[in-house]
Design brief:
With about 350 residues, the chain is of the alpha/beta class. It has helices at about 5-20, 45-70, 85-95, 110-115, 120-125, 160-175, 190-200, 220-225, 250-265, 295-305, 305-315, 320-345, and strands spanning about 100, 180-185, 205-215, 215, 220, 240-245, 270-275. The chain has a single domain (about 40-285, about 295-340), classed as Thiamin diphosphate (ThDP)-binding fold, Pyr/PP domains (Rossmann fold), CATH 3.40.50. Bound molecules: thiamine diphosphate and magnesium ion (MG).
C-alpha cells in the first residue's frame, strides 16, 4: 500500500471515531437549520423502562432465533438486528398510531416494535402454519396492514420506493400519517433511492428516510463502498434536510425522530435520519465475519451497547433495582421461550397452501 493510501485510510479511521456509533449528533449535520433542538431527549422513568423492555425483547428474540437457526430449525436466510435495537425502539416511541414502517430483510426488530405477535414472527421463521405469512414467507417477508407494518423486503433498496409510495398515499388521503422507510448504508447507494428522494421532495411527501448505518453492507465497510460517508447529506441535492444521530442512544433517536416526524407531518416534505449504529452479528447467519476484528465488535459492545446504557442510567437514578431489571428479563425470556415453543410445535402448512396466495 502506498503512502498516500495509508494516509487516506488513517483519515477515514479518524473520521470514523469522531462521527461513529456512539458519537453524539452534532449541530453541523442537523437539518433544516434547527440547531436549537436538543440532541438527546430527557427520559422519564417510564420511558427508560419502556425502552429497556422493548430493546431487551428484540435482543432475546434474536438470540433465540440465532439458536434455532443453529439447530437447523430455520431455513433460508436470517439476518439478526442485535446491536441496532435503539434505532427502531426510539422511532417507535416517537411515532403516532397510523404511522407506517417498512424495511428490508433485517426486519424482526421492526415487527416486534410495531407490536406484531412474537409467536407469529418466530413461527414464520420456522415456516409453520401459525406464522404471520402462514409459514410461506420466512424471515424477510412478513406484513401487517392492521399494525401498519409493510415488510420485510429482500431486494436491497426496494422498500425505499415502496415507502415513498406509502408517503404518497398518506398525502393523497390527507390522513396525517408519516411513513418511515428504513434502509442500510449499502442500500443508500442504490439508484432508486435517489429517484424516490426526488419525487418525495417534489411532492412534499411525508416520509422519514431512516438510514441504518451499521458500518457494513455484507462484508464491505462504508469507507470502502461509499464516495461520501456522511449519509445524512445524501438528500442535499434535492433540498431534503438530514441529520446524523447516535443510533446507539435511544434518547438521541427519540429526539431526532420527533423532529423528523414533526417536519413531515407539518407538510414540509421528507426528512433523512442517518442512524449511526453497529451490527454485532454477521450480515446473515452464514457470515464468517473475516472483514473486521473481534476487538472492533467487542469495543462497541462494551462501550456503546444500547441496552446497557439504559440499564446503567436506570440503576444510577435508583429508578429500579438489579432485581427489578432481572424480573423484566425473566418476563421477556418467558415470552420468547413461549414463541420458540410454538414455532417448533405448530404444524407445517398443508401442501394445498402451495396453490394459495399466489398471483396467476
Ligand atoms: C438489489 C440487490 N442487490 C444485492 C443484494 C444482495 N445483498 C443483500 S444484503 C446486501 C447488503 C446491504 O447492506 P446494507 O444496506 O448496509 O444493510 P445491512 O445488511 O447492513 O442492514 C446485499 C448487497 C440484494 N439483496 N438486492
Ligand atoms: Mg449496513
Amino acid at each position: 500500500m502506498g503512502k498516500r493510501q495509508l494516509e487516506m485510510r488513517e483519515m477515514a479511521a479518524t473520521k470514523r471515531t469522531s462521527s461513529g456509533a456512539g458519537a453524539k449528533a452534532d449541530s453541523r449535520s442537523r437539518g433544516a437549520g434547527d440547531n436549537s433542538a436538543p440532541a438527546i431527549a430527557d427520559f422519564s422513568k417510564e420511558q427508560e423502562l419502556h425502552a429497556y423492555r422493548e430493546m431487551l425483547l428484540i435482543r432475546r428474540f434474536e438470540e433465540k432465533a440465532g439458536q434455532l437457526y443453529g439447530m437447523g430449525l430455520i431455513g433460508g436466510f436470517c439476518h439478526l438486528y442485535i446491536g441496532q435495537e435503539a434505532v427502531v425502539v426510539g422511532m417507535q416511541m416517537a411515532k403516532k398510531d397510523g404511522d407506517q414502517m417498512i424495511t428490508g430483510y433485517r426486519d424482526h426488530g421492526h415487527m416486534l416494535a410495531m407490536d406484531l405477535d412474537p409467536k407469529g414472527v418466530m413461527a414464520e421463521l420456522t415456516g409453520r402454519r401459525g406464522g404471520l405469512s402462514k409459514g410461506k414467507g420466512g424471515s424477510m417477508h412478513m406484513f401487517s396492514k392492521e399494525k401498519h407494518f409493510y415488510g420485510g423486503h429482500g431486494i436491497v433498496g426496494a422498500q425505499v420506493a415502496l415507502g415513498t409510495g406509502l408517503g404518497f398515499s398518506n398525502k393523497y388521503r390527507e390522513n396525517g400519517n408519516v411513513a418511515m422507510a428504513f434502509f442500510g448504508d449499502g442500500a443508500s447507494n442504490q439508484g432508486q433511492v435517489y429517484e424516490s428522494f426526488n419525487m418525495a421532495q417534489l411532492w412534499k411527501l411525508p416520509v422519514v428516510y431512516v438510514i441504518e448505518n451499521n458500518k457494513y453492507g455484507m462484508g464491505t465497510s462504508v469507507e470502502r463502498s461509499s464516495a461520501t460517508t456522511d449519509l445524512s447529506q445524501r438528500g442535499a441535492s434535492f433540498g431534503i434536510p438530514g441529520e446524523q444521530v447516535d443510533g446507539m442512544d435511544v434518547r438521541a433517536v427519540l429526539a431526532a425522530s420527533d423532529r423528523a416526524l414533526e417536519h413531515c407531518r407539518s407538510g414540509k416534505g421528507p426528512y433523512i435520519l442517518e442512524m449511526v449504529t453497529y451490527r454485532y452479528r454477521g450480515h446473515s447467519m452464514s457470515d464468517p465475519a473475516k472483514y473486521r476484528s473481534k476487538d472492533e465488535v467487542q469495543k462497541m459492545r462494551t462501550e456503546h451497547d444500547p441496552i446497557e446504557q439504559v440499564r446503567k442510567r436506570v440503576l444510577d437514578a435508583n429508578w429500579a433495582t438489579e432485581e427489578d431489571l432481572k424480573a423484566i428479563d425473566k418476563d421477556v425470556r418467558a415470552l420468547v421461550a413461549e414463541s420458540a415453543e410454538f414455532a417448533q410445535n405448530d404444524p407445517e402448512p398443508d401442501v394445498s397452501e402451495l396453490y394459495t396466495d399466489i398471483l396467476l
